[in-house]
Amino acid sequence: MADQIPMTIGGGDVATSGAFDVVDPATGLPFGSAPECTEAQLDEAMRTAQDAYRTWRKDEDARREILRASADAVLAATDDIAPLLTQEQGKPLADAQMEVRSVALWLRYFANLEVADEVLADDENVHIRVERRPLGVVAAITPWNFPLSLAAWKIAPALRAGNTMVLKPSPYTPLATLKLGQVLAPILPAGVLNVVSGSDPLGANMTSHPVPRKISFTGSVGTGKYVAAAAAPDLKRITLELGGNDPAILLDDVDPQAVAEKLFWSAFRNNGQVCSAVKRVYAPESKYDEVVEALAAVARSAKVGAGIDPATQLGPLNNRPQRDRVENLVQDAVSRGAQAVTGGARVDGPGYFYQPTILRGATDGMAVVDEEQFGPVLPVLPYSSVADALERANGTNFGLSGSVWGADADRAEAVAEELDCGTAWVNTHLALRPDQPFGGAKWSGVGVENGHWGLSSFTETKVLHRSRR
Ligand code: NAD
Fold first, then answer.
1. Cα(224) to centroid(ligand 1), Å
2. Which atom of ligand 1 is nearest to the CA of 438?
3. Ligand 1 within 6 A of 174 CB?
4. Which of 125, 301, 346, 462 is the 20 to 30 A CA-CA neighbour of 112?
5. With a 6 A CB cut-off, is 244 part of the ligand 1 pocket?
6. Of 22, 89, 170, 173, which is best to mutate to test ligand 1, by the most ligand atoms within 8 angstroms of its C-beta?
7. 223 CA to centre of ligand 1 in angstroms
């Protein structure tokens, strides 16, 4: 069993007497453990973050330099962090390495981002300047699908803006984030980034804690609503990045063979455990069979296995409840008339593996279509007209992202304009960049991350208005 990785509080390693197991989803067996943060330790993390804020907020150039050095340190530690991420999360090692590199990319992007104060007036009468000021301590809470990159989406802009942070990863995937805290501890001033770990109640204790001025949360819609309620009595600022049920609409000029590979990986990347993965495909009736078969062919060729095996393309589901949920969704759909053209069952043996599954004949109203499946299962639904497809694509409380695919990209873009969501892609999906804002419409979120919009969300406006008369 690997050693316990300590928490980072006030720049130092902090262990606890209490700990919880971390399970390798490829075996179903515990392989390490993480500290269970006590209330007193959480208080200490908040206190040290508050202390550090007094100095950290003052020197923007120093913050930029330190974030650049942080990016270098993360890159240098790729081989220490990535295998841990694979072992606790399940994803292929190459993807874990890419995720570590994305942390460095985000740190560097926000270190270099230029956002000038806005001068509204500057004449003999008056000088009016609009500044962005940091908020204070940020409580950051992340899920188990991309523990590191989603943490970086918070750490990089929050710290660049002058805030300090207490970060809590999911109890399913705490280790890579704890390791990240250790890697950054020698570079960041003590208390600027504190990493704590624990089970779900620790998240609730963070959101109701009196110190943080902002909660930056990524996770499910259900938990997001608790977070919003917990923030309200103290009027804490919130950014909520929540679940999605992204539709992909294929237009009738699409070539199913040509798009199948890209469309498949838009749905099955990270084994379908992506908030903004394609979760429903709407195909024109005229091309329905061809689309189903083209996707099924890619699914049949995808290599499922342990993330540590270099040949693996699809790892296990991250945890047993999620594997059971995916299994139940498929069983429910099949019992109501859908057909698993390929897949439709667990992979025999240990671990939380599930065969990549393409469903034909699933209909709106089935849970696998209406809810976020968050796993390697994709329902393909026929539509009769583009208006019908759009109505069904938009007819949900989710609104994270969506895509439209077709040979005539202008026509596809016009349809994409009609999607009610935070990001609408044309002939692609899951294309994310640090400078591109990302957030959800409707129940998929409140606020955005990334780009200068994401940086602003860790600030508040201050007006400096000076009379010259
Ligand atoms: P989750 O909501 O169960 O947990 C997310 C985090 O919240 C974990 O760290 C958990 O410990 C913590 N938590 C649990 N209860 C809490 C409470 N009452 N108060 C505060 N924190 C609490 O989500 P999950 O199962 O870990 O992740 C999967 C979900 O995350 C999916 O719905 C997915 O779509 C969503 N997600 C969204 C985005 C996005 O950017 N929109 C990105 C990735 C994942």
1. 7
2. 40
3. no
4. 462
5. yes
6. 170
7. 6
pLDDT digits (tens, 9 = 90+) for 390-443: 999 999 999 999 999 999 999 999 999 999 999 999 999 999 999 999 999 999
Q: How far is CA 81 from the centre of its chain?
A: 18
In-domain check, residue 459: no
CATH number, domain containing residue 214: 3.40.605.10
Q: Is 200 in the pocket of ligand 1 (CB under 6 A)?
A: yes
Closest Cα to atom 18, ligand 1: which residue? 204
Q: For the whole prediction, is pTM greater than 0.85?
A: yes
421 in ligand 1 pocket by Cβ < 6 Å?
Answer: no
Query: What's the pLDDT tens digit per position in 135-147?
Result: 999 999 999 999 9
Q: Whose CA is nearest to atom 20 of ligand 1?
A: 203
Ligand 1 binding pocket includes 148 (Cβ within 6 Å)? no
Atom of ligand 1 nearest to the CA of 243: 34
pLDDT category, 335, cuts 50, 70, 90?
Answer: very high
> Is residue 454 within 6 Å of ligand 1 at its C-beta?
no
Q: How many domains does the chain have?
A: 2
Q: pLDDT tens digit string along 101-144? A: 999 999 999 999 999 999 999 999 999 999 999 999 999 999 99
Mean pLDDT, residues 43-72: 98
Q: What is the pLDDT of residue 17?
A: 85
Q: Ligand 1 centroid vs 438 CA: distance in angstroms?
A: 16
Looking at the fold, whether 277 and 151 belong to one and the same domain comes out as: no
**Shared-domain flag, residues 394 and 378:** yes
**21 and 131 fall within a common domain:** yes
pLDDT value of residue 445: 98
| Residue 175 tokens, joined | 């280790």
- Is the beta carbon of 351 within 6 A of some atom in ligand 1? no
